[in-house]
């Protein structure tokens, strides 16, 4: 039989490692003859852009620990008739399994393809291999790509903190814009190296919260008064009643990040009169090569490998999931979950991970996240004093 | 005798190394009894915040390779009578030499103090130790801090490039905002890893250029058509006739970065209809610890050490300068230059380093910059094809 693999959505730092794991495993499987790859997700399937990956092993291995999607990402939405076309194409190429590496969008696609093939009475298999820096998929303890993005942010916050501490007497507010879709998983990672209340950041907001501008300005004012400086983390999908409906709409419509941080900075400057700077790391969250977590790379690879094994046993319509067995020592097992009830659902940042009063994640969240990072944090800068 | 050291302006990744070099050298000098440090530049001198640095050797050594200013930065402007007050304070503490680590502002302060003391017939010495990520000081081949900031940007551009390449079929424009004050030294570093025209970034703008909005939109349109994607580097002090006077004014007035990138993105979206994202690394340019260049650290230290040696020989009113002797192998010597004609003057990005037609720095600039970086660049991502 032949198999097909594709990548979907925006890239991560480890998405190529899942591809590499799957391709290596498939290459060693006697039952598998050809390993097809599709360029730009299901678009490549629909537009005849399939390539033989067994001929590209060297390139895939070289890219395996590098950010970006070596097969190209896709944001294509399924049109009527597409499912049937994809299934026909698979039959033409004698492809029995389709592995789709992606987030919530591709989970829905895999589920739909599985149903369609089943309905037609066809013996095809469809497996979803998760990836997203947003960490917003149900069924898995966490998603490959998230640990590396969290690792980058937690370091960036510490670096920017040394700068703010140096310029403390010139009191300023720094707004750092976090990615993470509609959930606060990534924004929360900004606080992972904090060991005292004064340390940066002092205010973290989640997209799950709805806030009015006056509420936020009050919180900014009181934090600033308390600490004499203020680093705040604002998700790019943060809705602020009043001012930010338009900016948020822009964000979605035109792929326009920066709206929330910029507009909030303008409001702080105009209403409170504080110097306010913005930092927008943008796609650095998913491409900051030097911050790829080793644990993340390892798990991305194992998920790819296990996906091939599982499909060889005949299963279909599932997502490859990480199940955490223990925090200390960190231990996981890879399981499969039926996509039926989880595909496409966003997993919000859990209530027990969030301290609403302090605008900070809880220690429970730290226990969850720390094993996934490269914990090489900077000693916070302490100015010399008399 | 006693001496005094202080740090000024925004921090860099290596400003503490210059301090460390000077303090170590002074500690070993028999003529020197006490090494005073001032907290927050000349403000600390004016407000009695002097500390004995010989008691802080361990802390200074620990911070020596870390970003931030361990003595605190300063953006204080000299008021009438301040020069005399500083000189009085130096006499009170029997301080014979004042070393000021900083950019153009502190160069002017050092020159003014030197003149004032000379005018009063006092045997005091004043030495300027350069630091700025802007690289805009006359007299020195380059300034400590610049290589590390350039190193960070050149890597960030490559990372963001892998993301753009992965999403190429979803054509987008990415605007990266560069620091660098009124000169294009830092923005130009974004192109240092480029080996072909298509590689990222495709358009670099310098603050030395004045452009109208319609000119820029024309250049964006034609680059986008040519490459099917576009990464452009825009300095945060970039003046665009028409739209950006207000944003630029804000930048200066309120310490408000992000204005230029945000406003230009809005113009591109509204006028050309392309998806446009912005990345604002902000103070990461001067704090991205993992990108501190070893050459930069080394030179920052030597400048601090040599400054102590020179002052012991009796010189005053000078800047410590790097003079390049050769590119291959890279070799420099440390010299002093009289601040008389160079203090406070901005060194624009040289014409021979800039290709106006291509919106790119020339190979001459690459020859200049490369020896200062950690040249560990990523292989650009190439999507797999049939």
Automatic annotation (TrEMBL), chains A, B:
Q: Which Gene3D superfamilies match?
A: 3.40.50.450, Phosphofructokinase domain
Cofactor(s) needed: Mg(2+)
MF GO annotations: 6-phosphofructokinase activity; metal ion binding
User: Which terms does the UniProt entry file under GO BP?
Assistant: fructose 6-phosphate metabolic process
Keyword terms, alphabetized: Kinase, Magnesium, Metal-binding, Transferase
Please name the InterPro entries in this protein's record: ATP_PFK, PFKA, Phosphofructokinase_dom, PKF_sf
Tell me where in this chain the Phosphofructokinase domain is found: 2-289
Q: One Pfam family of this protein, by short name?
A: PFK
SUPFAM superfamilies recorded: Phosphofructokinase
State the superkingdom: Bacteria
The similarity comment for this entry is: Belongs to the phosphofructokinase type A (PFKA) family.
* Protein name, UniProt field: Phosphofructokinase domain-containing protein
Q: Supply the source organism for this entry.
A: Niallia nealsonii
């Amino acid at each position: 039989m032949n198999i097909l693999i594709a990548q979907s959505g925006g890239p991560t730092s480890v998405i190529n490692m899942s591809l590499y794991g799957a391709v290596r495993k498939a290459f060693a499987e006697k039952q598998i003859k050809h390993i097809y790859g599709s360029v730009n997700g299901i678009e490549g399937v629909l537009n005849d852009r399939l390539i033989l990956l067994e001929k590209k092993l060297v390139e895939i291995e070289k890219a395996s620990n590098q950010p970006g999607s070596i097969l190209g990402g896709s944001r294509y939405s399924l049109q009527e008739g597409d499912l049937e076309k994809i299934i026909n194409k698979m039959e033409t190429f004698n492809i029995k399994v389709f592995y789709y590496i992606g987030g919530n969008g591709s989970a829905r696609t895999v589920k739909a393809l599985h149903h369609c093939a089943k309905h037609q009475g066809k013996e095809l298999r469809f497996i979803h291999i998760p990836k997203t820096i947003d960490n917003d998929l149900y069924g898995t303890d966490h998603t490959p790509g998230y640990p590396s993005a969290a690792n980058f942010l937690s370091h960036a916050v510490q670096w920017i903190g040394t700068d703010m501490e140096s310029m403390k007497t010139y009191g300023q507010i720094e707004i750092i814009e976090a990615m993470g879709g509609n959930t606060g998983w990534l924004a929360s990672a900004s606080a992972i190296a904090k060991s005292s209340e004064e340390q940066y950041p002092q205010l973290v907001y989640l997209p799950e919260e709805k806030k009015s501008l006056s509420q936020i300005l009050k919180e900014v004012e009181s934090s600033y008064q308390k600490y004499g400086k203020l680093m705040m983390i604002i998700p790019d999908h943060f809705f602020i009643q009043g001012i930010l409906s338009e900016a948020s709409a822009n964000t979605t419509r035109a792929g326009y990040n920066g709206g929330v941080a910029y507009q909030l900075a303008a409001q702080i400057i105009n209403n409170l009169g504080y110097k306010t700077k913005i930092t927008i790391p943008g796609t650095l969250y998913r491409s900051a090569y030097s911050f790829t977590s080793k644990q993340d790379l390892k798990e991305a690879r194992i998920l790819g490998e296990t996906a091939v094994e599982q499909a060889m046993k005949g299963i279909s319509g599932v997502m490859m999931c990480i199940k955490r067995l223990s925090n200390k020592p960190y231990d996981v097992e890879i399981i499969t979950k039926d996509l039926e009830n989880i595909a496409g659902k966003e997993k919000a940042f859990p209530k027990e991970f969030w301290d609403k009063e302090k605008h900070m994640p809880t220690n429970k969240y730290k226990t969850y996240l720390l094993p996934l990072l490269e914990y090489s944090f900077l000693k916070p800068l302490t100015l010399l004093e008399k």
